Amino acid sequence: MNKAARRFVNESLSYKLLGDEALSQKDHASYIVFDDNIRRAKMKESPKDAKLWGAVDEGKEMSYAVYGNSIEEAVKKAGLDPKALKATIEQYNKLAPFGKDPLGRKSLSSGYGKPVAIVKPPFVIMPATAGMIGTYCGVRIDFEAHVIDVFGERINGLYAAGEMTGGIHGAAYMTGTAFGKALSFGHLAADVIAKSE
Ligand SMILES: Cc1cc2nc3c(=O)[nH]c(=O)nc-3n(C[C@H](O)[C@H](O)[C@H](O)COP(=O)(O)OP(=O)(O)OC[C@H]3O[C@@H](n4cnc5c(N)ncnc54)[C@H](O)[C@@H]3O)c2cc1C
Question: Whole-prediction pTM value?
Answer without folding.
Answer: 0.78
